[in-house]
Amino acid sequence: MIQIPENKIIDAARQGMDEFLKVFSDAYLNEVDGILSAENMPKLTGYQHALLAYRFFQEEVNQGGFVQLIQNGFGGYIFDNPTAKAWKIFGATEAAKILYKAKEIYDAHRAELEGETTDEEFTAMYVDFEQFDELEENYFLIEEEQTAKIASFVDNHIEEFAQII
After folding, report:
1. Which contacts (CB < 8 Å, 24+ apart) does range 120-125 have?
2. pTM, full prediction
3. What is the crossing angle of helices 131-156 and 46-71, to 10°?
4. Interatomic CA distance for residues 137 and 122, integer angstroms
5. What is the tens place of the pLDDT at every residue in 111-155?
6. Dist CA 52 CA 31 (whole Å)
7. Which of 1.25.40.10, 3.30.1950.10, 1.10.3720.10, 1.20.1420.60 would CATH assign to domain 3-164?
């Protein structure tokens, strides 16, 4: 089980919900040496993976949208696992709905979205996949609320996410 010092969690919580969640996902990334692989995925539980997926989702969508998320290799990790189902359990039902809709687009165009691209081709994907735009905008409107719900769930079920030492 991933262990996190209690004082580290308390300090992060004082800084806000994003830092609180980051303490956990940082510990998960540390456990897998910063790179998820088939060999090290079993080191994390389903809930830990779902929380780590939220971090990747949040970072990538905020920086470059779903196209960037997928091009950076997180599509399979987020869409091929029960991530949205876990987020619903966490209370982030609106984020889960967005993820389900994005998965439909991803599944229909997976090969194209995951293919190697030049910089020009990557940029063109934002035009080719404008259907992601509305989903991204909807997420931006609810991000703070959904993140707060996830943080609350983690706080109330902390033993599912790490052993506090």
Report:
1. 122/67, 122/71, 125/67, 125/71
2. 0.95
3. 160
4. 20
5. 999 999 999 999 999 999 999 999 999 999 999 999 999 999 999
6. 12
7. 1.20.1420.60
